[in-house]
């Protein structure tokens, strides 16, 4: 990675987060692997299986040949069917089998990243099925983001909070903020020539303004707005859970404060999810 140092922060963030997951799950009793997470239909075991599966595919391993049971209710389309294969194939693996495969996968991927010689702008496969190619730099950014989000899924399930301000948390902030323009301008249909402020407090603290131009296009900036149509304030963990589709706004209403146009604020919160 020394040939391309601008990739290193994403590799370091990914490493810190995925090794934290390994440390979290290593001592789990067998029953704890079955604890439900905020990912619909997925247990702690399933989330770890998903992480292993994605990393193995990026290593070039062939996808498992596996037929899904017909009674998995959260599999509703081709995207969820694709993602479920790597999960269901490991559903009966024991805790030791899971931790062993995770640790081996981390070793292999870490070696791959250390030996990476491609340039940051090299086109590579997206981490999601059917999506267009992305640059290598973007792919690593998305891996740090995805692994951290799933680390938090596991931590909430196990009631073991932590790493809310880790390097990958900051990467996650940047990824999620990118989607605010679409949420405010397209989904919530904020009026042209208006602005909306998102104010986040806690371990990762930031404020962003979404400005909607005369043509209805939204752009995000860090500069304040003197007269926003609406201001939404919330804690960092609530922001992550909403933006990642882990919870609905009414379930965390006590941690959300809105000012200004109440209808617009509600529309923004109803369309806040920015990940598939």
Automatic annotation (TrEMBL):
Residues 15-155 form the Mycothiol-dependent maleylpyruvate isomerase metal-binding domain. One of its GO terms (molecular function) is metal ion binding. It comes from the Bacteria. Keywords: Isomerase, Pyruvate. Residues 173-265 form the MDMPI C-terminal domain. This is Maleylpyruvate isomerase family mycothiol-dependent enzyme. It comes from Streptomyces armeniacus.
């Amino acid at each position: 990675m020394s040939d391309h140092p601008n990739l290193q922060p994403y590799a370091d963030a990914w490493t810190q987060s995925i090794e934290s997951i390994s440390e979290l799950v290593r001592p789990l009793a067998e029953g704890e692997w079955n604890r439900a997470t905020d990912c619909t239909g997925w247990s702690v075991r399933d989330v770890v299986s998903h992480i292993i599966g994605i990393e193995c595919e990026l290593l070039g391993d062939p996808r498992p040949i596996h037929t899904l049971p017909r009674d998995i209710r959260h599999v509703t389309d081709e995207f969820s069917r694709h993602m479920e294969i790597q999960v269901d194939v490991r559903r009966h693996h024991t805790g030791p089998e899971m931790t062993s495969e995770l640790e081996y996968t981390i070793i292999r991927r870490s070696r791959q990243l250390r030996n990476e010689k491609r340039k940051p702008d090299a086109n590579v496969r997206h981490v999601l099925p059917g999506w267009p190619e992305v640059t290598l730099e973007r792919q690593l950014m998305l891996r740090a983001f995805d692994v951290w989000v799933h680390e938090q899924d596991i931590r909430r399930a196990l009631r073991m909070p932590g790493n809310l301000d880790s390097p990958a948390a900051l990467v996650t902030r940047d990824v999620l903020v990118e989607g605010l323009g679409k949420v405010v301008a397209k989904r919530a249909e904020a009026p042209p020539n208006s602005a909306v402020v998102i104010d986040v407090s806690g371990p990762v603290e930031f404020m962003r303004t979404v400005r909607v131009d005369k043509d209805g296009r939204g752009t995000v900036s860090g500069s304040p707005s003197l007269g926003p149509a609406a201001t939404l304030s919330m804690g960092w963990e609530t922001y992550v859970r909403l933006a990642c589709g882990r919870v609905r706004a009414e379930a965390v209403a006590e941690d959300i404060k809105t000012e200004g146009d109440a209808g617009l604020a509600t529309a923004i919160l109803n369309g806040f999810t920015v990940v598939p």
